[in-house]
Amino acid sequence: xxxxxxxxxxxxxxxxxxxxxxxxxxxxxxxxxxxxxxxxxxxxxxxxxxxxxxxxxxxxxxxxxxxxxxxxxxxxxxxxxxxxxxxxxxxxxxxxxxxxxxxxxxxxxxxxxxxxxxxxxxxxxxxxxxxxxxxxxxxxxxxxxxxxxxxxxxxxxxxxxxxxxxxxxxxxxxxxxxxxxxxxxxxxxxxxxxxxxxxxxxxxxxxxxxxxxxxxxxxxxxxxxxxxxxxxxxxxxxxxxxxxxxxxxxxxxxxxxxxxxxxxxxxxxxxxx
Length: 273
Hints:
Elements: E1 2-5, H1 21-27, E2 29-34, E3 42-43, E4 49-50, H2 52-63, E5 68-73, H3 76-84, E6 90-91, H4 99-104, E7 106-107, E8 113-121, H5 131-136, E9 142-145, H6 149-156, E10 164-167, H7 170-178, E11 184-188, H8 189-199, E12 204-207, E13 215-217, E14 221-222, H9 227-243, H10 245-250, H11 257-261, H12 265-270
Parallel strand pairs: 1-5, 2-5, 2-6, 9-10, 9-11
Antiparallel strand pairs: 3-4, 7-14, 8-11, 8-12, 8-13
Helix pairs in contact: 2-9
């Protein structure tokens, strides 16, 4: 993968024509905009680009007959203007779908998703899948950060305040679960994946996504005039999801393939943020 740093002054450059799939195949690469925000995107000291977003884009474009991708590191505020100006062919950078963004770009189906998750004992013995499941179990205690999204979602689902234990930090939540002081600990998927990986505790597992909680996802973003390219991208992305190849790319980075499969572009673009 080639890497180019795109300076802000380039925003004043003449506008190149939008590329269709045949053009991308002929030139041998697609231009993608990325950030430098692991695990979504990452740039090593040697300039090598990795991260879940570029890795998925590289594989999809390869399957479309486009041999490589060229990555430009941009600030998030410059990504959509650069896409609209035709200076990049796609944005693959953790640019989460919001209604206003969906009005400005043509998103693919979901790729990288963060969602609420539950850290539970191995086998999920109480079969918690919803915050409402915890509310219904009169003996269940849930740990969550005080004042955070998880606390609000649990309270809204009916978990009583006296069974919602405020946890000051992830390590404390892990310890409380290990000691049996709580029955589940809730944080976003990425946070719990990292916590569990560092703990090395084989007696715990993660359930995600929590089924009565919102899912937040990005997709590859394309110029509104490039819907044919977006649609071709979606076809190959769907094949990867069905075969399990998609999960093999995103899950080592801590993302939940199941979360991406649990929702779709129309739902995410319509959801209030």
